[in-house]
Amino acid sequence: MNAKDYPAGYVVSDQKAVMLERNYFRLLKTELILFVGVSLVGILAAIPGAGLDRPWAIAAAILIAGAFLVLWRIRQRRLERKWFQYRAVAESMKTATWRYMMQAPPFESPGEEGDVDKKFLATLRAIRLDRAGVEVPAHEAGAAGDEITGFMRTMRKLPVEERKGIYLRERVGDQEQWYEGKSGQNRRSARRWLSLILATQVLAIALAFVRIVYPHVPLSPVSFLMTGASSMLAWTQSRRHEDLVEPYAVAVQELSELRGLGKSVTDSQSLRRFVSDVEETISREHTKWLARRSIATGKP
Does 232 lie in the same domain as 117? Predict the structure, then answer.
């Protein structure tokens, strides 16, 4: 499915989540680079006979002030919390959309289709209202025609076998591929960063011993290297590379098993049960992700 096939509220929430995530990590990276810069200035200021004590002191003050302003900006705008909230809204709307298209609970059609549409629109409104701080104005979320797209209506009316095939490919297969890709990507990133951090720390230890043996060496970059290692560690912890590898791999396994069960779907009733099982699994993974991020950042 393309983004335009989903409800307008989902599209807006997804775009805002992506923007907030990008801005948050951009500011965090800037803050860590500024801290490393302060440490570097401290090393350069110690050059004997350079006569640049005052300029280096000014540079250090500017860098420290810059880091403070970046940190204040992150906290003041509450970027991380808003990112989590908009992501939760987007994924909840996505789940509701697939339930609607597959005629899965609570969007079965025992009565008039208009009643199902009203229930779906009410569900989207409830999802938005359930998350404090999430603002999707009416002119952005769109009218009912934008929230229930023509593609969604067409999908809902397809025969069971066609809906099943599309669901297995576009929802189950897509999510399985996404989790598999993210698991591998986080595994590779965790290894790269760990190797770089360890290499930096080993170099710092070696230079510390050099300073012991040759105490008259005028400069020692040990503090700069340790600051760099600490900044890299803070970055990896914020990205949660290592912590996400196993949960994402488990999600791949669960979705793969569910995809295998899709072969037994033969009628509307079994399709509804299958979709409910899949969406509950996907929703559970999103809930766990939000909980992990909240615990990691100390936010309720």
Answer: no
- Range of the structural domain that residue 56 is part of: 1-157
What are the tens digits of pLDDT across the range 89-113?
A: 999 999 999 999 999 999 987 556 6
* pLDDT tens digit sequence for 174-230: 999 999 999 999 999 999 999 999 999 999 999 888 888 887 776 778 889 999 999
Nearest to 262 by CA among 115, 84, 94, 102: 102
Q: Residue 107, SS3?
A: coil
**How far is the CA of 12 from the CAs of 9, 19, 134, in angstroms?**
5, 11, 11
Which among 130, 157, 184 is the end of a domain?
A: 157
Confidence check: pLDDT of 277 > 70: yes
Looking at 133, 157, 181, the residue that finishes a domain is 157
**DSSP of 250-272:** HHHHHHHHHHHHGGG--SHHHHH
DSSP 228-253: HHHHHHHHHHHHTHHHHHHHHHHHHH
Q: Which pTM value belongs to this model?
A: 0.84
